[in-house]
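Question: what's this shape?

___
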Amino acid sequence: MGQTRLDLRIDVFEEENQLAKALPDLKPSELVEAVLQEFRELEYLSGSSADYKLLRAEDGEPLDDEDELRHQIGENGRLIMVEEEKPLPPGTARPSRPIYLRDTVIGNVYKLHWLPAIIGRPDKNQPHNEWVAVDLERYKTGLRVSRRHAQISEENGQFFISAMSRNPTLVKDAAGDMVPVTGEKRPLHNGDIIHLERSNIALKFIIRE
């Protein structure tokens, strides 16, 4: 006979109170993996369960990933899925709203945990190496991305992008216009597509309201 499933409710960001029938011997990370698969239409969700944790709604306490669900939450329990927060590098701050870059072809999602955030490749010999939030080195065309390619920042609730190298970067806006990015800050809006021309990598800028 199959195992009896736990009837649970999960808040998946704006998708609240979602019904889930989970095997009681699942670990929390395994339940997160199933949730990510179920809600893959949410553009800002990554494909890695390590980016998230589950909290008990009743007390806000995180579930222990080493223990089975049956020992941590009862029938008709409610959980909240939240993002793991990375520590802030020196000289940075949290964005005022959750923001992400999503590769428009592969689907890789990069949450920008801090601003200023650098798009590029790590290099300890370059300044602000710890500010690299979008590491593109492992892409097939990654070596065509400058180590310090572009930077995303925020001022008074408005997000901006600026070039950090002569390696061409363009932004496609809602009107379909392709605008070159220079060293001057250019406003960045939800849905804008950042094109790294030489590497042919396109990243969609997403603001989660």
